């Protein structure tokens, strides 16, 4: 047996070890499930997508040895599963059929944030966010981020996640969700406006006080 | 001259489409004199980066 063969075998067994690390896999599964549930609002479908992504990763495991790369890779498989699900789900709940939902959103939020003359209300002017990357390693920050995503009206959340999490392009989102380009752009604007407000109120400013 | 309301919408749409030359000029002129909108623009980019790192976020105990 040559050295080259040996090293290949060692790599693939290291990769299989990832699946034997029960703590790592369980933690990863929990994160994947949370990610899927945010987008597919059906527990069973979300669990199926995670299961399938995990299985698909297991079948192709020989390509992965490092845990960090593994995680990114499994999530990219999961993203594709979710995109497939959302495509199938299209007939039932396109974003165009969803209500904007309660709470301050859309025009009401815009009226709340801006004066009639189109300038920021004094209290609502965006404040400087200190070192946002400081939050990224922080579990508490991600809980707040989740809560802010959850609080978005269903239509905003769905389109926002398609764009930012699943990185789908404009023509595909518009086709899938039966919305026009300008309506998509306005909805994304409102979603970001709302998310920004929520993050500032519950994380970036709170930290200071 | 555009107002903050239009400027913020452009700062968001900038992430989704290419702005026209006229929009770019208007936006540049506006953000040059408007601190809140400048912050807003940075925060739009931060939100995009945060969304990207969402699936890569590490638990504090993870090395």
From TrEMBL, chain A:
The keyword DNA-binding applies. One of its GO terms (biological process) is DNA-templated transcription initiation. Residues 25-91 form the RNA polymerase sigma-70 region domain. InterPro entries: RNA_pol_sigma-24-rel, RNA_pol_sigma-70-like, RNA_pol_sigma-70_dom, RNA_pol_sigma70_r2, RNA_pol_sigma70_r4_t2, RNA_pol_sigma_r2, RNA_pol_sigma_r3/r4-like, WH-like_DNA-bd_sf. Keywords: DNA-binding, Sigma factor, Transcription, Transcription regulation. Pfam families: Sigma70_r2, Sigma70_r4_2. GO terms for molecular function: DNA binding; sigma factor activity. Residues 144-195 form the RNA polymerase sigma factor 70 region 4 type domain. Coiled coil: none annotated. Belongs to the sigma-70 factor family. ECF subfamily. This is RNA polymerase sigma-70 factor, ECF subfamily.
TrEMBL record, chain B:
It holds the Pfam family zf-HC2. Residues 4-38 form the Putative zinc-finger domain. The keyword Zinc-finger applies. It comes from the Bacteria. GO terms for molecular function: zinc ion binding. Keywords: Metal-binding, Zinc, Zinc-finger. This is Putative zinc-finger.
């Amino acid at each position: 047996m040559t050295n080259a063969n040996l090293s290949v075998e060692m790599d693939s067994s290291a990769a299989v070890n990832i699946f034997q690390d029960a703590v790592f896999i369980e933690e990863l599964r929990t994160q994947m499930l949370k990610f899927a549930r945010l987008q597919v609002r059906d527990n069973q479908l979300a669990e199926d997508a995670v299961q399938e992504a995990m299985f698909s990763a297991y079948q192709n495991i020989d390509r992965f040895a490092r845990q960090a790369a593994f995680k990114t890779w499994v999530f990219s498989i999961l993203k594709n599963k979710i995109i497939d699900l959302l495509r199938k789900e299209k007939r039932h709940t396109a974003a165009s059929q969803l209500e904007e939902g309660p709470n301050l959103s859309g025009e009401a939020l815009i009226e709340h944030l801006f004066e009639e003359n189109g300038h920021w209300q004094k209290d609502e002017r965006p404040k400087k966010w200190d070192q946002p990357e400081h939050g990224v390693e922080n579990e508490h920050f991600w809980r707040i981020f989740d809560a802010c995503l959850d609080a978005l009206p269903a239509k905003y959340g769905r389109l926002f996640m398609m764009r930012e999490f699943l990185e789908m392009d404009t023509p595909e989102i518009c086709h899938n969700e039966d919305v026009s380009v300008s309506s998509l752009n306005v909805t994304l604007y409102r979603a970001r406006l709302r998310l920004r407000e929520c993050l500032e109120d519950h994380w970036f400013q709170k930290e200071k006080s | 001259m555009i107002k903050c309301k239009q400027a913020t919408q452009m700062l968001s749409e900038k992430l989704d489409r290419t702005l026209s030359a006229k929009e770019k000029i208007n936006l540049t002129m506006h953000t040059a004199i408007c601190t809140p909108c400048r912050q807003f623009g940075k925060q739009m980019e931060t939100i995009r980066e945060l969304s990207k790192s969402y699936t890569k976020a590490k638990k504090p105990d993870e090395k």
